[in-house]
Design goal:
single chain, about 180 residues, mainly alpha, Rna Polymerase Sigma Factor, Chain: A, Arc Repressor Mutant, subunit A, 7 helices
Length: about 180
Amino acid sequence: MSSSPRRPLEVDDPAPDGPDREAQLRVWMLRYGPGVRRFLLKRAPASEVDDLVQEVFLSLQARAAASAIENVEGYLFRTAVSVLSRRHRRKTWPWGRQEALNGVHEGIDELSPERILLSREAVERVVVALKRLPRRRGEAFALSRFQQLSNEEVARRMGISVKSVEELLRNAMQQLTAELGTEL
């Protein structure tokens, strides 16, 4: 009941669970493994083909676990092309041309107790300044900056116009800048 590598597979149960999934994978490996191997032998050194075939079937196993595969044969050969492409990128990457990372840690400050205390105090000043914003201004600022909503989404949520949101945000930034200066 084997099929030629060129004919699409009609699968009764493309993504079975548990032991059935493993049995289905073995069937696919027996049915399509030789064709995938021949395909890869034409495009890669024989010493690497077994690893490439394994990578193709690992991808099939992961994909089949996530959802059904309608055309296993097509998926396998598309995956084989991707595996070859990744292999090519690994081989042609200029590994020796990267610069050494000497002195990377020189610019990093150590976390001293003093630095931690100063940072906590700065955060507290920002929190106090945010609490001093008028209610609507603070709400618009929080939706925009902390929930990362667009001005249109803020306007919809607050039931106001986009121009009003822009004005609230501008006023909030002016107030926070005046109060915090460079800490903001």
